[in-house]
Amino acid sequence: MLTIDRVSTGRALVSDELFAQLTARIARNHPELAAELPGRIMDQALAFLAACATATEPLGPSDLVDIGWHAFLLHTRE
Fold it and tell me: What is the mean pLDDT of residues 36-60?
């Protein structure tokens, strides 16, 4: 079983294939972003979701992390 305290990056929470799909969606939906940002956004969105799973207080994402969170929501089956 994967536990949150053993994960070094948000990216480690999903498969490479899913991560690629999510970052491609961000890049496609937000062409104004610099080329390196979709991967960074998705990594931090996944880290945010991991933090939410263990937080004892409400958390809210930054505007950029929110982009990644919404991309992830569109892949709920995965």
Answer: 93
